[in-house]
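pinging the channel bc i need a second pair of eyes. not urgent but kinda urgent?? the chain im working w is below, pasted from the shared doc
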Amino acid sequence: MTTTTTPARTGRNWGRFALHYVEMIIAMFAGMLLIGMLRSAADLGVTYTEQPELWYLAMALDMSIGMAAWMRVRGHGWAPTLEMCAIMFAPAVPLFPLLWAGAIDGGVLMIVVHAGMFPLMLVAMLRRLDEYAGCRH
C-alpha cells in the first residue's frame, strides 16, 4: 500500500508580499519627505551638491525612520526592521570612496543609491519570505 502526501500549504500570499513592498516604499518616501521638510524648516538641510555624504546619510535616516515606524505598526520584529533600515544605508557606503576620489558626483550618488536600494529591499524580503508573504504578524 502506497500513500501519497500533499505538500503542506505554506500560507504565503504573493499579493500580501507585493503590498508589503509597496507599503514600505511609501513609508520610506513619507519619512524622507516629512522629516526632510522638518529639517529644512529648522534650517538643517544639506544638498547633495555641497555635502553629498551628509545629504545621503540624512536622507537614509529619514527613510529608515518612516519605514521602521510602519514596519512596527504592521507587527514586524526588530530584526527585520533593522535589516531594512540597514539597506537604506548599504548602497552608499561602497560609493563614498568613488565620491571622494572625484570619480562620481552627488547626482550620480543619488541615482545609483536609489537604484540599488529597491532590489536590496526585495532581496531582504525574499530572504524572510514567510515574514512578508505569510501571516505571522
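so The helical segments are 14-41, 52-73, 78-89, 96-100, 106-127, 129-133. and The two ends are 41 Å apart (CA to CA). — does that match what u expected or am i reading it wrong
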